[in-house]
User: Fold these one by one.
Assistant:
Number 1:
Amino acid sequence: MKNFKLFGFLLMLVSSLLFIQCTSDPVPGVPGADGIDGQDGQDGQDGQDGVSTGAGTSTTDLLAKRVFSGPLIDGVIDVAWADAQILIAPTEVLDPLGDDGTQVFRGYVGQTQESTLRALYDDEYIYFLAEWKDEKKSTTRDTWYFDPATSLWAQESRWPLFDAAGNKTRDAFYEDKYAILWDVDNTVDGWPEQTCFATCHTGLSEADGYARHYTVAAGQSVDMWHWKQARTSFYEQADDQYQDEVQPNGRHSDANAGQAPYTNNSQTLNNGTSDVSVPLYFIPGREYYNWITIDEINSGEAKLITGVDATGILTYDGGTIDPNTEEGYERDGETTGKFGMPSVWVQPSNGSRGDITAVGVYTGTGWILEFKRKLSTGDTTGADVDFSSLQDFPFGIATFNNAAIAHATKAFLTLKFEVEE
């Protein structure tokens, strides 16, 4: 197993070079005053200044502007955001190799996404507005389909598929996501210098997920905010989790997580000869759907699958599905069939795992994601960052473009608060 700290150090060096390359003009513009970004006569900013107070832009700092009352969290950019400073934070999928020489993020390395972030806060809440470019809305996470070659139900791969020559033969079937990582109570060694790279480790086996996050010692904790389009968006939440020292996977739900926001839509049944995996629920006649809600289950609209035979015929309360003769359950070229079944059923989290309200809207060219959380959740378990001190908080972000783990990152960022004097 390879610790990502050395990689993080190298990334700091590379990142500094990229910063110079991406935020400086061939002929520097006039620096701004009072934190207002300087002008270069072309796009109105040169990346200088704009990192402390006032309007403008920054490439390193996120200034949370003090407001009397925060915006409505609905995925619409309202006037409340007009005076908030914009953090310009493009993300990129880097190339960490595993100890066995495999490319951990194969099929994604080098991808970039334009990304910005804004922040506001009031007496009770902190609010964030994330925007990032994405050419395609991805929601088809691990979709169920019927394979006539094996007479078995299977799920599309969350990883891209490649032939023997290394050419990609099928894209991943996953979801778009967004994440922010925060050090809890200044406990993580090296966090101010490395942010999210301080807990990133690669070189793990396929069974262990190739790459994972965990801290290096007991008592160190990272608050992880993870918006997942197919799994948390319907009930307008982000998944509030944390990381600790447990290996190989230090990710956990909060101690008082309440009901999980999503559950795998799968079960094991015997088909008469062996135990096989099949979907748990489906909605008759529904096309191209990516989740089933707890309301649809409780109302009976979603049907429980109760049996399967050796030819793949499913039984449910009210009928059967014969995928050998009924069209729409098999793959259809580059997509799954129109009756492909979702990989999850979802519900609102009623515990600390649901602390973050989040609404994402796809615009046709990218995502608008608004979210809010209390400045202090009152957590005493070390799972949640507490912003009530209004101190500086180093952090890192990640965008996931139809990716399970191959995230594009932007590290070495700092949240600062506009404080009334």
Note: The helical segments are 5-23, 191-194, 294-299.
Number 2:
Amino acid sequence: MAHGFLKKIFEVFDAHETAIDMITTSEIAISLTIDDTKNLDAILKNLKAYGEITVETEHTIICVVGEGLIEDKNTAKLFEVLQEIPVRMISYGGSINNVSLLVATENKVATLRALHSKLFTRENHSAIA
């Protein structure tokens, strides 16, 4: 059922006028995020026809934005500060100017503080730029 599978999944979200914010795929799984959950029950009912569904809540998307961020070889250093924070999903490459991270909402403040420290404190600024 690989051919056309993603199309069918997207059609379910389209039918319920629900935008997908982040998505990652593999041969056997799709992980995605939505912001608007008002139609979630109907979406889940439709998706069950295509496989097993797991819903996780209380997650936050954090975006790091900067001109040419993806092309900068030092961007990988951002992930050094996240060693203690479980990152659920990474979107790296949808745009050359942004990296998006999905973390549990309980880790949002710690993630933001760690990134801020790496990006905006004087002693670390030259390590990224």
Note: The first strand starts at residue 20 and ends at 25.
Number 3:
Amino acid sequence: MRILLLTQWFDPEPTFKGLLFARKLQQLGHEVEVITGFPNYPGGKLYPGFRQTWRKREEIDGVVVTRVPLYPSHDGSAVKRLLNYFSFALTSCLYGVFGAKKADVIYVYHPPMTVGLSGALIGMFRNTPFVYDIQDLWPDTLRATGMIGNERALGIVSSVCNWIYRRASHIVVLSPGFQKLLIERGVSSSKMSVIYNWCDETSMQIPEQTALDLSFMVGRFNIVFAGNMGKAQALNTVIEAAKIIESQNAEVQFVFVGGGIEVDNLKAMSVSAALKNVRFLPRMPMNEVGAVLSKADALLVHLKDDPLFEITIPSKTQAYLAVGKPILMAVSGDAADLVRRAEAGIAVKPENAASLADGVLQMTRLSVELREEMGKKAIEFYQKELSLDVGVERFIEVFNQVAIKKNTLN
């Protein structure tokens, strides 16, 4: 099968469905071409070694990758962000219609929504079915994050999304909650599938040696949070929980790994409260993150208490399960249900310092054997339900389904 992957973000940028996905499809005998932009995410500046041209074609691990120009930006300016989104939609659509080989099926990665516009138009002009992989619900996310507050503008975004949904041959969502909400908005359940995300399994391998000095984790009960520290993560609650715990169990230590716009605020909160049970490590390569995770006694997922997050599954959930450590899930809804199904940790209330503190203390009271059993169940659940092999197999089933349906109609 010839598959066209349309995604604004692709390796070397961080992305859920990048080279790992394309390479696996290729290994299974499918011909894959990727249309993407010149790498600039998340900093908004072109990566070193790249210069924009009308078209740059390269081959990465046997996968043909075609890069088209865009306006590089990812700062707080809504205008610049929109220019970034719409410029890629325009150039990818032009190349997809006039330059790319005709595919049997088009895979479209959302966000942003504008890539869905491009995919729908390519599909119309090339008479090719497209599968829409929704990783982020618009306009809900735009409203929740404050990127767009104007209700009229949000209404326009909603109308465009509904048009794309109607044009899509099939829609893939990352959680049952996404599926339920889209059904309520008029999308037929017969054209939707839930396919859970996977993680980069190779980067989860724990290195035999590391240059990191992790001696500060020895002799402590370490709760590790690894990833972006932004507004959505609401990690001020974790600092408040650390205050509560410090007087009750001096062995507990919270270790934050990564970057984000809230790092400085979180550090200031920690210093102001004179906390000795909070540590910050900078953003680091994934293999080094693996070394930190291996020293953890439990891994923390935390998001704002928002209805939108009740129907999403943070990407670190899959990575944490694959690592095989107990999870403290401070996200309501689908993510908490996943951890309960896996029997891989404890679910607590989001943005509730007392609930989080209770969950941490409960985790410390479990025997080492019970925590190890949680870790084993985490790995087993990941391999059975969420792994790359399982996910790609399900995508191929969807691709075959829409291709056969298209051929039948013709």
Note: The chain has two domains: 2-198+387-409, 202-385.
